[in-house]
């Protein structure tokens, strides 16, 4: 199973630019490749979209699986173009261009559009073989990917269920920890560090079929830098930001959620920041519906935070405290994709999946961030996240 | 800490081709970028190697960390070239080319070499800004990366220690399983599936600071396809191939190891194949030393397997049973990198890290593969793997 791809924008582009095909040369870690081909392989393969079909060129090793799994009109293996002979005669570099040129020619493609990240080695090689290669500058495939079909929404919901289980693991560790004399949290007789909580989050995700490269469990000043993953002992009376963005190992779809907790008493100012962040999060959620721009949703979050007396990048582009990132981003096969819920963020459409994640930061107080993942609908949104919002950690 | 990079081959290439610099435009998931810059960031950044230095261009977000961590002579942030203004005036696509062109100009680079996978969008954009861009076709950086320094060897050894712990977890599960009436292995009252063993492998790796995208636990006919990850119940009297290739989450260096086990009696033919594979593995190991080619080592493994009466891709390029892959590959920041221990594999050099992994496959019997990770030395090899070879699983 894979997403049903709307090829119309790509084909409109080909027609408007008078080009014969759109070609991707990448392995499946490139989400555009994975999406357009409906196939995954660890080594680069080639997909070309023409006015009347989608065609794959794969190694012999991947041929059988590609025939069964890929969402393509045809699959060709390299050996059909005497690839070994090409390598023997021209070396691996030129052989690859000759191979792809022959494949494209068979599909009537002399002039092609390619994504910005198309390998220059392939582009220049194809040019040497007489093809014309033009970069499609807007990121059309990423744009198509931003609208999810029902099957994709189901995959993202499934990842977010795993995410909720992982967040519950983390919250329970913090809720049930003891407090040592020096203020650090202690669990089962050992100091509860950021690293330890991250490991338990990741173990929970693994047991739910998800993996992830990174997690944020950031206490006190660490949490005031949105890019700090956090390290060392977690402390009582401090804000602890937990941001989890797992990826389903099979489907490749991401989830994303952030909660902020504090054991003990983080102080009045921290509590106030939590309330303001929660208010901004709720206001931004309520502002979401098809036709509203990402920029407008971001402005709603900024309004709440500025009205409460904190800086935002809108009120002061150089501020290093306050609300110092955007309100959200698209989530799908990439953790950060279109659309953008930020200045210059365009119109939201039904099927867009976005995070809503305002936050307020200051090294002197720590960080607060609250994040849900939602799907945009005609008249509002569906919250894909089912997890309590609250500063005090609970073990239930 | 990071590897000490030998820039001489790149600088020799620049001198020979009369080019001013070698530029990488990629995020740190590109191992060449990670290696040359000594830096990791999730979004693309630019590194240029000139005759007298290594220079980085990064976002403001990464600037502080890059100044501290990168192995570079200079780090520049985008704002120094008024990047926001460039985006406002020219749009994000052209702004990026203008930004990088200005950065390159500041380092005296008008003509540049780029790797094959350099983004065509950037290459064509720089050409529009008047720079000359030439693809370096040989993969010079990957070639430099193939020779590991002592610090890198230490990182690979550390990953391989985690790998050994994970393999022990898997072996113990198989060794201590009960056998149900239908022949499936059962552990703690539940069927022991490939999926379950993989999860326990990955949990063990996580607890040792390593992650991985994939593991192979393949029983019976599944194990006869070297690319099948395995699924479903593990069975008594069948060969079970376990191939683990973890990556350290901090350093990015991979480990790699395969063992084959069987509970009960897999039969005389399976045992014979195990013995022949072990003999091929030992012969290949003994053949390794600096100055010997990867092809020669591969030939030694093929000799043993063919002498025992099994096909290899050398004896029959179209065979689908027998020894149907190469003897080994380089391992480092990528799981598959230079050098190649295969037909056309070049001369091994001290500091090369390679796998030695012969195997014999047939769907009717199952698969056998035995793999260690080793470092090439002047007069032989250092085995980076410390794990017993044996068909019968042990819980000790």
TrEMBL record, chains A, B:
<dbReference type="InterPro" id="IPR000587">
    <property type="entry name" value="Creatinase_N"/>
</dbReference>
<comment type="similarity">
    <text>Belongs to the peptidase M24B family.</text>
</comment>
<dbReference type="InterPro" id="IPR050659">
    <property type="entry name" value="Peptidase_M24B"/>
</dbReference>
<keyword id="KW-0645">Protease</keyword>
<keyword id="KW-0031">Aminopeptidase</keyword>
<dbReference type="Pfam" id="PF00557">
    <property type="entry name" value="Peptidase_M24"/>
</dbReference>
<feature type="domain" description="Peptidase M24">
    <location>
        <begin position="154"/>
        <end position="378"/>
    </location>
</feature>
<dbReference type="InterPro" id="IPR001131">
    <property type="entry name" value="Peptidase_M24B_aminopep-P_CS"/>
</dbReference>
<dbReference type="Pfam" id="PF01321">
    <property type="entry name" value="Creatinase_N"/>
</dbReference>
<dbReference type="InterPro" id="IPR036005">
    <property type="entry name" value="Creatinase/aminopeptidase-like"/>
</dbReference>
<dbReference type="GO" id="GO:0046872">
    <property type="term" value="F:metal ion binding"/>
</dbReference>
<keyword id="KW-0378">Hydrolase</keyword>
<dbReference type="InterPro" id="IPR000994">
    <property type="entry name" value="Pept_M24"/>
</dbReference>
<feature type="domain" description="Creatinase N-terminal">
    <location>
        <begin position="10"/>
        <end position="145"/>
    </location>
</feature>
<protein>
    <submittedName>
        <fullName>Peptidase M24</fullName>
    </submittedName>
</protein>
<dbReference type="GO" id="GO:0004177">
    <property type="term" value="F:aminopeptidase activity"/>
</dbReference>
<keyword id="KW-0479">Metal-binding</keyword>
<dbReference type="InterPro" id="IPR029149">
    <property type="entry name" value="Creatin/AminoP/Spt16_N"/>
</dbReference>
